[in-house]
């Protein structure tokens, strides 16, 4: 498929040649076409050759892409065929590119297979973040379901509490000496503590 510019100023004599191939794939049970190579010719001599990657569609469809370019910022679907030829000197970019090589009816493009991937980096990042949020929510629900009510059981027992001898004589009726010796300790007879079981 050749695109000739005719007598347009400096582009006179420039031809862009698209080399398309068609193949039958048993897995999809249909023919597919692909752009195999792109050549730039000037005054009937080949100036640059680019190998095309990922430019394919079913033979009954057309192929559409916002940018088909040799530049990395546009995902570089066109790759110089050789490091030794003049392809490195050319930068090729097609904007709003659409091509169909076979099964053309009434001069119109068929339904287009778009180059936009369903799993772009932004979409993948959104899926990962959604998965993380779902895991956090599932863990929180799991913890809420297994949260038990606080059944409090109080068990109060008398317990001896020991304090060093105090100089306050007003508490004499509440204190009973335990043993005599170097340090005297006293037991508070009415001291109690409670244990709480949860």
TrEMBL record:
<dbReference type="Pfam" id="PF05827">
    <property type="entry name" value="VAS1_LD"/>
</dbReference>
<dbReference type="GO" id="GO:0030659">
    <property type="term" value="C:cytoplasmic vesicle membrane"/>
</dbReference>
<dbReference type="InterPro" id="IPR046755">
    <property type="entry name" value="VAS1_LD"/>
</dbReference>
<dbReference type="InterPro" id="IPR046756">
    <property type="entry name" value="VAS1/VOA1_TM"/>
</dbReference>
<keyword id="KW-0812">Transmembrane</keyword>
<feature type="transmembrane region" description="Helical">
    <location>
        <begin position="118"/>
        <end position="141"/>
    </location>
</feature>
<feature type="domain" description="V-type proton ATPase subunit S1/VOA1 transmembrane">
    <location>
        <begin position="117"/>
        <end position="154"/>
    </location>
</feature>
<dbReference type="GO" id="GO:0033176">
    <property type="term" value="C:proton-transporting V-type ATPase complex"/>
</dbReference>
<dbReference type="GO" id="GO:0030641">
    <property type="term" value="P:regulation of cellular pH"/>
</dbReference>
<keyword id="KW-0472">Membrane</keyword>
<dbReference type="GO" id="GO:0098588">
    <property type="term" value="C:bounding membrane of organelle"/>
</dbReference>
<dbReference type="GO" id="GO:0012505">
    <property type="term" value="C:endomembrane system"/>
</dbReference>
<feature type="domain" description="V-type proton ATPase subunit S1 luminal">
    <location>
        <begin position="1"/>
        <end position="102"/>
    </location>
</feature>
<dbReference type="GO" id="GO:0001671">
    <property type="term" value="F:ATPase activator activity"/>
</dbReference>
<comment type="similarity">
    <text>Belongs to the vacuolar ATPase subunit S1 family.</text>
</comment>
<dbReference type="Pfam" id="PF20520">
    <property type="entry name" value="Ac45-VOA1_TM"/>
</dbReference>
<dbReference type="InterPro" id="IPR008388">
    <property type="entry name" value="Ac45_acc_su"/>
</dbReference>
<keyword id="KW-1133">Transmembrane helix</keyword>
<protein>
    <submittedName>
        <fullName>V-type proton ATPase subunit S1-like</fullName>
    </submittedName>
</protein>
């Amino acid at each position: 498929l050749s695109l000739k510019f005719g007598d347009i100023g400096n582009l006179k004599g420039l031809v862009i040649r698209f080399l398309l191939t068609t193949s039958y794939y048993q897995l999809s049970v249909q023919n597919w076409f692909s752009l195999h190579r792109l050549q730039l010719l000037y005054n009937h001599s080949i100036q640059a050759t680019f190998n095309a990657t990922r430019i394919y569609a079913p033979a009954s469809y057309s192929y559409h892409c916002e940018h088909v370019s040799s530049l990395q910022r546009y995902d570089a679907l066109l790759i110089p065929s050789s490091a030794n030829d003049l392809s490195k000197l050319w930068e090729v970019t097609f904007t709003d590119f659409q091509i169909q090589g076979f099964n053309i009816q009434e001069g119109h493009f068929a339904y287009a297979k778009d180059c936009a991937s369903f799993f772009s980096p932004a979409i993948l990042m959104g899926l990962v973040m959604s998965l993380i949020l779902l895991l956090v929510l599932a863990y929180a629900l799991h913890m809420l379901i297994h949260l038990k009510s606080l059944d409090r059981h109080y068990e109060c027992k008398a317990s001896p509490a020991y304090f060093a001898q105090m100089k306050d004589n007003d508490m004499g009726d509440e204190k009973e000496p335990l043993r005599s010796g170097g340090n005297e300790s006293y037991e508070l007879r009415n001291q109690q503590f409670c244990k709480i079981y949860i």
